[in-house]
Amino acid sequence: MAIIPRSSYYDKNYRQTAALIRARQPYLIRNIITGTAIFGFAISVYAFTIRAVAQDDFSDVQIPDAPSQPPHTPNAGVERAVSSIAVKK
């Protein structure tokens, strides 16, 4: 019993037969054109994005100074407080 079901388009070594090549022949040129169009679109979007990002100029943006102390975070020590209470009991 074969693990992969046999198709009439493949031989016993799962290679393409002449029937499969003939069946795919009408779609070969259309598939090449479609693949080229999709590939061209993807490359053009990538190139446009890289070009648009490369021309950004951040020299006029002021970078704020670092804060002298980090902001107060009231919930930062919750885990430690809960575990210390549990240990005392």
Percent in strands:
under 5%
Structural class: mainly alpha
Contiguous uncertain segments of 5+ residues: none
Outline: elongated
Task: Show the helix and strand layout.
Blueprint: H1 18-24, H2 28-54, H3 78-88
Question: What is this entry, summarized?
Answer:
51% of the residues lie in helices and 0% in strands. It has 89 residues and is mainly alpha-helical.
What does this 3D model show about the protein?
The protein is mainly α. It has helices spanning 18-24, 28-54, 78-88. The longest helix is centred in the middle third of the chain and has 27 residues, at 28-54. The N and C termini lie far apart (67 Å).
List keywords for this structure.
single chain; 89 residues; mainly alpha; 51% helix; elongated
